[in-house]
Amino acid sequence: MRLEARGDAVRGYLLADDGEEAELQDIKRLVLACALPTSEVHFTGSCRLDPEKLLVISSRAQHDGNVVKWKSTRTVIGPSGKAKTVRDNDY
Known about the structure:
The chain has one helix spanning 24-34, and strands at residues 2-5, 41-50, 53-63, 68-77, 83-89. It is mainly β. Helix 1 links the parallel strand 1 and strand 2.
C-alpha cells in the first residue's frame, strides 16, 4: 500500500480538521485499520516551504495487529542543495 502527496498546497500526508498535518497517532490508527498485519505502508510527499526550501518526506509503517511501528525521514533542501535530515524511528 502506498499513499503519495504532491503539489504546492500539500502540508502533510493527511490533514486534520484544522487544516494542518494529521497527528502521528491518527495516521497510525489509519494504518492499523487499513493494512494487513506485517504489510508495510509507504507514505511519500514533498512541499515547498518557501521559494528556496523544499521539504521531502518519506515514511513507512507496519503493524502486528496491535502496535504500529513507524519510520520517517524529513529532509529540508535549501539553497545550493544544502540539506538537513531528521529521522523519527520507532522500529
